Amino acid sequence: MSNEIVIHWFRQDLRLADNLSLSEAAQQGLVLPIYIYDDVNSNDYDLGDASKWWLYHSLIKLNESLKNHLLIFKGDPKTILLDLIEKYDVKAVHWNRCYEPWRIARDELIKKSLKEHNITTKSFNGSLLCEPWNNLKADGTPYKVFTPFYKNACIKATPPNPPLPKPFRIKYASGDSKITLDDLNFISKNKWHEKLNWKVGEENAHKRLLNFVENGLTNYKKGRDFPSLDNVSKLSPHLHIGELSPSQVWYAAKTVQESDSQEHFLRELGWREFSYNLLYHFPSLPKSNLQAKFDTFPWLKNQKRLSAWQRGQTGYPLVDAGMRQLWQTGYMHNRVRMVVGSFLVKNLLIHWHEGERWFWNTLLDADLANNSASWQWIAGCGADAAPYFRVFNPCIQGQKFDPEGEYTRKYVPELASLSSKYLFSPWEAPKDVLDEAGVVLGKSYPKPIVEMQQSRNRALEAYKKIQSIS
Ligand code: FAD
After folding, report:
1. Full-prediction pTM beyond 0.90?
2. Range name among 65-69, 386-390, 399-403 with the lowest pLDDT average
3. Residue nearest to atom 32 of ligand 1 (CA)
């Protein structure tokens, strides 16, 4: 190891273990660990409020792990890196790769510029099980359908590299920054976040992973569809910001006996890879319909209905429970994400962009690849999309996946005393049943903002027209 200074630029890899870039930097010389909040190049994809909350707490934890050596900056990374290189006579800059199109473009420019200054740059894979450019079909084109992608490419074909331990020893270079984490103003003043109850950071991520593998994974295949059960991992925010690597999750899940549940869970990690694959090969994924024929889809603009959806006031209890779970906890169960998504784009015929934007701002796991790919899937305009005629019925979904109403009653307490028979369609309850449960439709709980059958038929007609375009 030399005394040359190497920058490790933390991005979506806020961890010490299984961090190839950091480990190599530690072996090479004195490490200057930095985080840059880039609000210059992100444009429409500046962090949402929920992501900022998580990031703030995660950076505090990371700084503790780095024995208070983390330097925080804000602005254009190219300028900041060039300043640091000059100030500290830095010889190399390391980072783990990110895959959002704007970051790829920015990083390419940075690499070029640093090369011109004779600075070594090294980038590594720190967020994916396999690199998207290695996941091509035999004819050299990218996969657009999940099952063959999962079977033939990615982890099924080549198991991921086993995770690395934390660097044995990090010798730090000393440096300073004019700003602190608090200067980034990540914590909004309106206190919406006070109810958030998440344990953030690498150590807590590992605790959650271990707990899930020991207690939740065995029943994952069945239990993952029931939002009141504790059978999903809730690892998505940790994975997004890189407090955990997918390889750590993959190998932890592999420690239990093989089962359908284990296979199903690994498959979900495969969906994450697939989304990144789509984003990498189709960088317009967040903005443009992958199926161009959807460009003429007759979306409706209706601010009142959009607000009712956002606030959990649609009159459909499962939809409202999901949207309120999102608002109160920064998370929503996957089954319910599908239900609320279908309701927005099909029953309300509101553009999937509106859903994508709302989720981007409110989800703690807001992730450009997963969010865009999932919304395109829901809207039917994506690569491997939900069949156009699948319109989730929130009443049936509720009866099936929240049969005791535990989840729905928790987030829609004004219906807590309503019997399960009418919980998902309170407008069908006789007056005496509503009276007994203390529900006054239109007052204590909204009447449905659209009629289910009518809105379903309207959606099917619009979708049929689009399907007929070749
Ligand atoms: P688990 O069921 O425990 O799964 C483990 C991990 O696998 C997850 O943490 C996630 O990384 C990955 N995964 C699971 N399901 C999916 C999926 N369908 N697609 C891609 N990866 C998956 N996920 C995000 O991480 N960020 C988003 O912004 C996001 N937006 C979504 C928007 C919509 C409309 C829908 C329908 C889904 C979205 N998802 C998103 C995917 C999925 O809902 C979440 O990854 C999952 O609910 C996270 O909870 P979990 O960690 O308990 O999942």
Report:
1. yes
2. 386-390
3. 371
